[in-house]
C-alpha cells in the first residue's frame, strides 16, 4: 500500500516538459505546473517566434497567459513572476522523505543508523553505542543478527529478537504510510482551496457580466442624449470659424506662494475652474469672471477635466498620492471631493470627452472607459525618453493627443487607443509645446516659448496661427465650445508674480 502511495505521489511531481521531478515548480493561471527553467525556456522560444505577443499559451491546455505591462518587453523575467506551486513543493518533500527513510535511526544518536545488534541485550545499536557493549559476549552486525535470528528460529531468545525486528519493520512502514497520507491530505486541502478559488472566480465573472449589462444600459441612455452631443459638435464647428472679440483677465489674489495655474476647465454650467498647484487651491469663477469660491485640496491637485455634459462633475489629478479624484462643484462654487481612484502611476495631466478619461505622467498614458461609477481600463502604455506635458482625446476617432517637452525632441504626438504612435509633429513654429485641447475637428495647441496659439488638424495637416502676442509663456489651455470661451494660464520662473496668477480669457464671436 505504501508503494502505491509513493507511486501516486511521484506521478504528481513530474514536469510534463522535461519528465523529471519538478525543480522550482511554477504554476500558470490555468493551474498547470512546470519547472521554472523549463517554462522560462519555453517562453523565450515562443517570444522569439511571435515578438508582438503580450503573453504566451500554456504548453498543455494552450490557454493564453497575459503578462503585466511593465515587463512585457522583457520575456526573460516572465517566468520569475509566476507563483510557486507550494502544494507540489510539499508533495516533493514528502516523497523524498518517505523514499529516503529505509533504516531506523538510533534514539540516542539521531544521525546514526542502527548498524549492529547486541544479543546479550537483544537490542540494535549504532556505531557510537558499540563501545558501551564491548564487554558483551555476542555483538554482531545488523545483517549477521538477521541471519542468526532466522537460523535459530526455535530458540526463545531468537523468537523475541525476530518479533522485535518485525515490529521495527512494521513501525517503519506505518511511519512511511503516515508521511504519504499527510502529503495526500495537504494535496487534498490544496485542491479544495483551488475549488473554492474557482467558485469565487465564477461568482466574480457573473458579477462582471451583470455590471457589463448595466454599462450597456448606461450607454443606451447616453445614446438618448445624442442630440445634445450633436449640438455641442455644432458649437465646436462655430468656434473654429470664430474670431476673438474680447480679451479679459482673471487675476487670483496673492496666496502666499507664487502661483502656478496648472489646471483650467469650463464646466457645463459656465463656471470657470482654476487649479493653483503651488498653493493647493481650486478657484471657481462665474462666466462673467466674478469670483465665487476657493477650496483647498491637500495634497496639491494638478489638472482637471469635466466628466459630464450636463452636471458640474470633474476628475482632478493628485500626483503626490497617485490618485484621480472625482469632484463636483456646488451651486455656491464650493468643490466637494468624492471618490478616489488609486494608481501606481504619478499622473499629472487629465482629459475627458464624457465617454473616456485619459491621463498621463511624464512617460505613461492610461485610458479609462467610465459611466461615472465603474472604471474599465482601455489602455495602459509606457514610453521611453518622453516628457509628456498635457493630453486631450477624441473617442469618436479613438485618438489621443499629447504635448511632449523632451529637451532633444519637443513635439505633438498622436496615439491610438492601442497605444500605437500614429504621427508626431515637430515644427519650428511650435518649438516647445504646452497646453492642448480639442476644438471641433481640430486641435488647439500652444507654443510655450513663442507665445503663439495654433490650430492643427487631427491628421497633423494645416498648422495655422490662431492668436499671437496676447500671452507670454502660455501653459494650460481650457476651451468651451458652448460658451465660446478660451482660457490660457501663463508660467515661467522668471515671470512676475502677478503674471503667474493671471489667466487670459478670450471670448469669441
From TrEMBL:
The keyword Metal-binding appears for this protein: yes
Annotated spans, Disordered: 148-168
Top-level taxon: Eukaryota
Sequence ranges assigned to domain RING-type in this UniProt record: 15-62
Keyword Zinc-finger among UniProt keywords: yes
Pfam families, alphabetized: zf-RING_UBOX
Location of the B box-type domain: 101-134
Example of a GO MF term: zinc ion binding
Keywords linked to the UniProt accession: Metal-binding, Zinc, Zinc-finger
InterPro entries to which the protein is assigned, alphabetical: TRIM/RBCC (IPR050143), Znf-RING_euk (IPR027370), Znf_B-box (IPR000315), Znf_RING (IPR001841), Znf_RING/FYVE/PHD (IPR013083), Znf_RING_CS (IPR017907)
Name of this chain's protein: Tripartite motif-containing 13
Amino acid at each position: 500500500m505504501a508503494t502505491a502511495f509513493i507511486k501516486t505521489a511521484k506521478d504528481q511531481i513530474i514536469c510534463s516538459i522535461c519528465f523529471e521531478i519538478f525543480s522550482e515548480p511554477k504554476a500558470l493561471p490555468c493551474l498547470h505546473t512546470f519547472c521554472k527553467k523549463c517554462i522560462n525556456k519555453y517562453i523565450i522560444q515562443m517570444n522569439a517566434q511571435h515578438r508582438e505577443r503580450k503573453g504566451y499559451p500554456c504548453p498543455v491546455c494552450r490557454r493564453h497567459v497575459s503578462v503585466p505591462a511593465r515587463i512585457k518587453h522583457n520575456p526573460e523575467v516572465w517566468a520569475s513572476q509566476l507563483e510557486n506551486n507550494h502544494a507540489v513543493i510539499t508533495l516533493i518533500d514528502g516523497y523524498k522523505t518517505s523514499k529516503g527513510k529505509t533504516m531506523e535511526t538510533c534514539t540516542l544518536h539521531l544521525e546514526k543508523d542502527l548498524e549492529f545488534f547486541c544479543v546479550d541485550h537483544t537490542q540494535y545499536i549504532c556505531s557510537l553505542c558499540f563501545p558501551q557493549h564491548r564487554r558483551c559476549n555476542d555483538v554482531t552486525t545488523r545483517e549477521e543478527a538477521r541471519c542468526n535470528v532466522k537460523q535459530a528460529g526455535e530458540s526463545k531468545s531468537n523468537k523475541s529478537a525476530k518479533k522485535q525486528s518485525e515490529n521495527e519493520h512494521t513501525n517503519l512502514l506505518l511511519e512511511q504510510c503516515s508521511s504519504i497520507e499527510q502529503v495526500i491530505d495537504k494535496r487534498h486541502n490544496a485542491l479544495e482551496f483551488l475549488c473554492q478559488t474557482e467558485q469565487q472566480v465564477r461568482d466574480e465573472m457573473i458579477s462582471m457580466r451583470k455590471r457589463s449589462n448595466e454599462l450597456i444600459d448606461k450607454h443606451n441612455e447616453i445614446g438618448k442624449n445624442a442630440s445634445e452631443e450633436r449640438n455641442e459638435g455644432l458649437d465646436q464647428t462655430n468656434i473654429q470659424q470664430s474670431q476673438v472679440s474680447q480679451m479679459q483677465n482673471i487675476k487670483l489674489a496673492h496666496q502666499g506662494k507664487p502661483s502656478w495655474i496648472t489646471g483650467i476647465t469650463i464646466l457645463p454650467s459656465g463656471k470657470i475652474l482654476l487649479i493653483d498647484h503651488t498653493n493647493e487651491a481650486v478657484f471657481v469663477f462665474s462666466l462673467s469672471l466674478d469670483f465665487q469660491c476657493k477650496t483647498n485640496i491637500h495634497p496639491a491637485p494638478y489638472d482637471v477635466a469635466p466628466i459630464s455634459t450636463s452636471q458640474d462633475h470633474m476628475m482632478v489629478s493628485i500626483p503626490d498620492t497617485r490618485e484621480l479624484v472625482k469632484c463636483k462643484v456646488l451651486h455656491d462654487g464650493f468643490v466637494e471631493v468624492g471618490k478616489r481612484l488609486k494608481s501606481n502611476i504619478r499622473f499629472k495631466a487629465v482629459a475627458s470627452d464624457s465617454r473616456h478619461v485619459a491621463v498621463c505622467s511624464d512617460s505613461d498614458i492610461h485610458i479609462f472607459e467610465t459611466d461615472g461609477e465603474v472604471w474599465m481600463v482601455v489602455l495602459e502604455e509606457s514610453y521611453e525618453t518622453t516628457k509628456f506635458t498635457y493630453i486631450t482625446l477624441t473617442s469618436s476617432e479613438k485618438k489621443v493627443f499629447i504635448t511632449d517637452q523632451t529637451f532633444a525632441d519637443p513635439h505633438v504626438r498622436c496615439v491610438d487607443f492601442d497605444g500605437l504612435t500614429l504621427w508626431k509633429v515637430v515644427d519650428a513654429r511650435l518649438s516647445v509645446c504646452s497646453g492642448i485641447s480639442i476644438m471641433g475637428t481640430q486641435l488647439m495647441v500652444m507654443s510655450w516659448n513663442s507665445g503663439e496659439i495654433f490650430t492643427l488638424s487631427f491628421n497633423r495637416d494645416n498648422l495655422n496661427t490662431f492668436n499671437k502676442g496676447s500671452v507670454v509663456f502660455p501653459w494650460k489651455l481650457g476651451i468651451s465650445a458652448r460658451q465660446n470661451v478660451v482660457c490660457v494660464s501663463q508660467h515661467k520662473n522668471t515671470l512676475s508674480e502677478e503674471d503667474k496668477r493671471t489667466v487670459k480669457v478670450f471670448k469669441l464671436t
